[in-house]
Amino acid sequence: MEIEVTGAKILFELPFGITITETQVNMWIVMAVIAGLCIWLTHDLKVKPTSKRQIVAEFLVKTAQNFVEGNMGKRFAFFTPYIAALFSLALGCCFVSLLGMYPPTSDLNTTLGWAAITFVLITFYKFKTNGLGGYLKGLTEPIFIMAPMNVIGEFSTPISMAFRMFGNVVSGSIISALVYAALASANSALFGWLPGFLGEWANNYPILQLGLPAVLSLYFDIFSSVLQSFIFCMLTMLYIKSAAEVE
Amino acid sequence: MERALVLMGCAIGAGLSMIAGIGPGIGEGYAVGKACEAIARQPEQKSSVTTTMLMGCAVAETTGLYGFIMGLLLILLAPGMFLKKL
Questions:
Q1: Domain ranges of chain A
Q2: What's the CATH code, domain B18-85?
Q3: Using one digit for the tens of pLDDT, what is the confidence trace for A23-60?
Q4: B65 vs chain A: nearest CA distance in angstroms?
Q5: Whole-angstrom Cα distance, residue B86 to residue B84?
Q6: pTM of the model
Q7: Shortest Cα distance from A224 to chain B (angstroms)?
Q8: Residue A167 is nearest to which of B55, B68, B76, comparing CB atoms?
């Protein structure tokens, strides 16, 4: 049994050495599905909802608004579209693996890109609340010797966010692949020696692979990815909020 | 011989890097235990306690994931990198 652990495969190449990988293509698919879903949910809205579709749409928007306002306060209510988009994109990118496609979140470039947006927002709000001088002064707290540590701390925020999501998704897929391979070899070791067509049948249809991978997929693909998307959005909100607080 | 040494070093290093899993395991277990106590004391706060606990668990998991990524690099990237130099 071969165990294959690969990164994103390169699908085709554009001029100037730009490569289009599975990550981008799968992400475009997810983006198209989310955009289509939004258009379908919000076309011909009425003041008094008559269709179930509009009630679902209103429920989703209300949930997102309450979520953001509860965590960031009324002042940052305009972040609702960004957080909702981030959450739905992260969730869609993780759920793609349920269809057997390559999940874009198991590419470090994707999560690092999202974390970079968060980093830019954090730094922007730090500048906005304290000014440039206040920002630079904040780096030398509590004493100026600690300045290198504080600079590293600034950069470690987005890196740890990116690696958290990437590590969770990749570890899930690697553990699933290992368990799958282990079950196949256990199957052939247990039943492969059976005489005649029985052994051949057991080798061709590994019945031990029936139960456990489904349970693992339930945990890694659904529970873990919902949790990690939620945490990514939560941390984004908390960091931005704490960056905008006046000391 | 050198090839075997390089591969052995990478494999042992990858195994050792997963020692990082101990810390998050203990920490998360502690957090979940405390959350159970909190829910037993105030069952009406169950949802907010659970949310906070999952949040804290995910943050505590980070160091373990760093160890995992080190192991991944040692197994997938390091052998090729070092074997090319030999």
A1: 10-243
A2: 1.20.20.10
A3: 888 899 999 999 999 998 888 778 877 788 888 888 99
A4: 6
A5: 6
A6: 0.82
A7: 10
A8: B68
